[in-house]
Amino acid sequence: MDILLIVLADIQRDARTLNMARTLRDAGLKVGVVAAGRLPDAEAGSGVTFIEWADPGGRAFLRMRSLREFLLCNVAVLLDECPPKALYAMDFFVLSATVGLGKQLRVPVAYDMREFMFSLGPLEGKGIKQLFITWSERRLLTRVKAISVSGTADSTIVSKRFKLKSEPTVILNTPPYRDRVEHSSLLRERFSIPSAAFVIVYQGVVHHGRGLAPMMRALVEMPDVHLCIVGDGPFRSPLEDIAIQTRVADRVHWLGSVPYDELHAWTCSADAGCCLIEPVSMSYEYALPNKLFEYMMARIPSLVTDLPALHDHIMRYPVGMLVDRTLSVGAITEAVRRMRVPATYDGFVEQCKVARELSYENQAHHVIDMVSRLTEKGRDHAIRNR
Fold this sequence. Notes:
Number of strands: 13
Structural class: alpha/beta
Number of domains: 2
Largest sheet: 7 strands, parallel
CATH architecture of the largest domain: 3-Layer(aba) Sandwich
Helix content: 40-55%
Order of helices and strands: EHEEHEHEHEHEHEHEHEHEHHEHEHHHH
Shape: globular
């Protein structure tokens, strides 16, 4: 095995890991994945070795401990005679366990820094947890040989903060290229939404700071707009309460999480995408989330918070309407009104064709180059320790 990817998630719902595994496999590398769930049927027998971890659910700490025990007790034994040349921690929550496994197997470790763990939106007001995570990540980074991030601004900020010798590799959260699913009506059919209604989709984790609460409050002023949420997360219950309190619950629809390979068809059945990130932390302030690229691939325009990375993207690729960072009801409703002007809407849809240029295939070389360098280090390390 050349590279073993490790993630604290269901592999079928983790787009970043799934896209990376497929890209490396197609480049001729022998790829392994440790995750919950099972590989999509298309990957069965395709050259990706899958090692299933039984996710116990519950709190993140308990899940992290479960995966660490699984890696160090089961996977280490499994791989001891023929270890991979390198390991790849696909998020912070598996970094400690991956570093421990790397030490045990004597192979280098890469780290996919998906967010600024030193400034997390969900930990707003939880200082002790935030301090512990910040300290832990900085300590573990001394054992990491390569870092990847999801945006150019992230690379610059991380390099300065951690005084890195070389800038991290930028791997945008873009999907592989797909044609639009024409005349898709999945969301309308699933939730009996009138054909004349305007459907806005949100996809991703349901967390504090993802713009869903402001969007629901704005629905009060837009009686023909429906919000469909494709995803799960810990903030669902408070959001359901907000929907009830504002009397829009009949126009807020919860689909739940779907396998990544099914996500595109659902997204294509919406009229617009919600990418209203709230600037509650530095991580969110500079976010460039995969949902924006998924909306582009579906050829639907986006509502986008006017934050630094998102602003730069919309200025370069005008695929949606910027909304003032306050995310006031007035700002959101005015953005939706302007978006729905036929000429404006059609212009955004036309601009979404740039999705082909930004598809995962066109940045795959960054992934392959970084992993190839890492596995070469792993090979040299193995030779030295024979």
